[in-house]
């Protein structure tokens, strides 16, 4: 097995980091990785905001509701960005509404996620630990205001990384035959039966976020996490419209 696959199979979320600084040569190399990530139609619809200011980190942690966020040596916010290309077209008197429609927003959002994942894989290959911050969507509008994002941009995901200060358990995953099918989607008669062993694994898994307490079974986590509104995330679509994307 090659080293890249081995690293991917051992991926764990790291929430606490050492004080060791990441040198600028490494930072620049990771920025190159992001810049060379696949992009829909070659339009390069993503932008990175690198957070260096401590006050900004503190505010991000407050909005996200996760104190450990402010302790990450590096935080990058990946932004879906239609603003740049729209203004290039506008300067050439060739802009139109199709450039800022929902289809292009999805392309920009996808570009951002792909770039973030490429950076995460590259960072982990260098011995760094990573943590995705979906909590930037706890109040997306506050993030937009905080980072002074212009119209036609939208924060997609945050990524924190640094040298790991912890060695958490590898989090169990459900059997791949429940998540990968051939030619068409497969529906099962009894999902609880299918995940019975996985539920037991999750119950015995210790999540560092919960002070080394055992985790709930996966089936119990579903209504708690998927079935509940998190902060102001129900306003995400409203914020998207406020950013002037055309939704039809």
TrEMBL record:
<dbReference type="InterPro" id="IPR000415">
    <property type="entry name" value="Nitroreductase-like"/>
</dbReference>
<keyword id="KW-0521">NADP</keyword>
<dbReference type="InterPro" id="IPR016446">
    <property type="entry name" value="Flavin_OxRdtase_Frp"/>
</dbReference>
<dbReference type="GO" id="GO:0016491">
    <property type="term" value="F:oxidoreductase activity"/>
</dbReference>
<comment type="similarity">
    <text>Belongs to the flavin oxidoreductase frp family.</text>
</comment>
<protein>
    <submittedName>
        <fullName>Putative oxygen-insensitive NADPH nitroreductase</fullName>
    </submittedName>
</protein>
<dbReference type="InterPro" id="IPR029479">
    <property type="entry name" value="Nitroreductase"/>
</dbReference>
<keyword id="KW-0288">FMN</keyword>
<feature type="domain" description="Nitroreductase">
    <location>
        <begin position="105"/>
        <end position="163"/>
    </location>
</feature>
<keyword id="KW-0560">Oxidoreductase</keyword>
<dbReference type="Pfam" id="PF00881">
    <property type="entry name" value="Nitroreductase"/>
</dbReference>
<feature type="domain" description="Nitroreductase">
    <location>
        <begin position="10"/>
        <end position="63"/>
    </location>
</feature>
<keyword id="KW-0285">Flavoprotein</keyword>
């Amino acid at each position: 097995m090659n080293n890249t696959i081995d690293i991917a199979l051992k991926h764990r979320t790291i929430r606490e980091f050492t004080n060791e600084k990441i040198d600028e040569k490494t930072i620049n190399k990771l920025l190159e990785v992001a810049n060379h990530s696949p992009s829909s139609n070659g339009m390069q619809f993503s932008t990175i905001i690198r957070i260096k200011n401590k006050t900004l980190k503190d505010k991000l942690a407050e909005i996200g509701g996760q104190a450990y966020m402010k302790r990450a040596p590096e935080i990058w916010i990946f932004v879906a960005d239609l603003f740049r290309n729209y203004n290039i077209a506008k300067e050439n008197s060739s802009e139109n509404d199709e450039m800022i429609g929902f289809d292009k927003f999805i392309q920009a959002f996808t570009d951002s996620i792909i770039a973030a994942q490429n950076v995460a894989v590259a960072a982990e290959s260098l011995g760094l630990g990573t943590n995705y911050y979906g909590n930037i969507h706890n109040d997306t509008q506050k993030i937009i205001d905080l980072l002074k994002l212009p119209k036609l941009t939208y924060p997609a995901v945050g990524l924190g990384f640094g040298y790991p200060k912890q060695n958490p358990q590898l989090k169990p995953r459900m059997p791949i035959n429940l998540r990968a099918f051939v030619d068409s989607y497969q529906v099962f008669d009894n999902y609880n039966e299918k995940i019975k062993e996985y539920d037991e694994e999750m119950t015995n898994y210790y999540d560092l976020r919960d002070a080394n307490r055992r985790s709930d079974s996966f089936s119990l986590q579903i209504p708690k996490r998927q079935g509940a509104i998190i902060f102001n995330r129900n306003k995400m679509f409203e914020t998207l419209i406020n950013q002037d994307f055309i939704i039809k």
